[in-house]
């Protein structure tokens, strides 16, 4: 028996509104200001996004944010998101137009099945071919 259940995936960033908008454009849903699950007023330090398929992401302002470096043990990514798509090559231009940056797009002619990008705040995420 589980002792907990899933909650928010919280991502530190310098601008919660901008990063929430990026992920809303990528995954669907509408960002909204929240209180970080706390008994406090709504704040610009915390923005929530529930995607159209129910994924719950939150974006939290982190002062003096230093983005991860991929791949690097010195400033490791700590975590990343896998985003499933039908066609990676067809999706890539839209992701770049939204503000993502390509990190590793050598998918070995499609054999590897994923490509790595950074969101506008520098967090790595992967476009993964959905099988």
UniProtKB/TrEMBL annotation:
Pfam families: Glyoxalase_6. Coiled coil: none annotated. Gene3D superfamilies: 2,3-Dihydroxybiphenyl 1,2-Dioxygenase, domain 1. This is VOC family protein. Residues 5-130 form the VOC domain. SUPFAM superfamilies: Glyoxalase/Bleomycin resistance protein/Dihydroxybiphenyl dioxygenase. It comes from the Bacteria.
